[in-house]
Amino acid sequence: MKRHPEISTRTPQKLGKERAVISWQKIKWWFEDFAKYLTENYEEGIKILKDASRIYNADESGFPQDPKSGKILAAKGSKNVYSTCSADKSQITVLACMSATAHYLPPMLVFPGERFRFNPLEGFTEAVLGRTKTGWMDSELFYTWVRDHFITAIKDRKVKLPVILLVDGHTSHISLETAQLCKSENVILYCLLEHASHILQPCDVTLFGPLKKHWRDSVRDYQFKNPGEFVTKGTFASVFKSAWAKGTTVDVAIKGFRHTGLYPFSVESVDKSKVEPSEVFARAKPDQDLGNDDDMNCKDAQVDNQ
User: Which of 83, 157, 259, 280 is most buried (most C-beta within 10 Å)?
Assistant: First the structure.
């Protein structure tokens, strides 16, 4: 460390092997395929990508009811520094959706269970209630969200059709029913490159990180104002409301689409440093072709090929 002042200790982000082998070539192919698909299947073709109001991204992330606290101030030499925590380690799934013009749809809060003795949205009635047995997103709930909330929102906003809705390739997003619905409503449901959401998904790149920081701050403020109490399923929505208001800014949305190369549409805007791990894998396994992957083209989720 003394001999190399240009380096420093850092806490690495965990990166799964599937994501680590994403190459620059795969990303270029995805951009080319997307542009080709629009050109061949829609009258306006690539022009659709030049209208920021017609490009949306939707994704989910889990928010723990008792998030890890950050560093705190304590007296020097303190032998023990504690932070009271809840025994409940469950989390609530939040579906977020935003456009390249910073149009945020109300978040969907997905709670585990089907019946409640309380109002899950108390304190944040603008949010959308989602319910599944596990608390995770499933294909039926995503279909309901697209039908009752996404399509309704773009119609109320009078967004010009067709509209692009970019999602990852999770099975809950690309069911046959959802694909048919989108096709009938002139919504282009298109999959991002598999295992590349940390590079190409605006919600992942700029929204969820700051949003989770605001969530931790909101939980801490709640506990300061209510000593001895913890965030429960009944209070989650009211506490999450302030975090959502602080995290969903115009700057976050615009930077999210810009840094992923989705608007303005250009693969050269993608952060190439995020694909450097693939070069390490390529050197370690030169016989492995990181540019060919039978599953790399997670095509449009419409039913053209069904």
Answer: 259
Tokens at 245, concatenated: 């208001």
CA distance 8 to 90: 35
Cα(243)–Cα(239) distance, rounded to whole angstroms? 7
- What SS3 state is found at 246? helix
State the Cα–Cα distance between residues 101 and 244, nearest whole angstrom.
Answer: 17
CA dihedral sign, ordered 261, 267, 271, 275: positive
Residue 121 one-letter amino acid: L
Q: Is there a contact between 202 and 257 (Cβ–Cβ < 8 Å)? A: yes
CA atoms within 13 A on the CB side of 70: 9
What tens digit of pLDDT does each residue of 22-57 get?
888 999 999 999 999 999 999 999 999 999 999 999
Q: What is the pLDDT of residues 57-88, one digit of tens each?
A: 999 999 998 776 556 677 777 666 655 555 45
d(CA 161, CA 169): 23
Q: How far is CA 232 from the centre of its chain?
A: 23
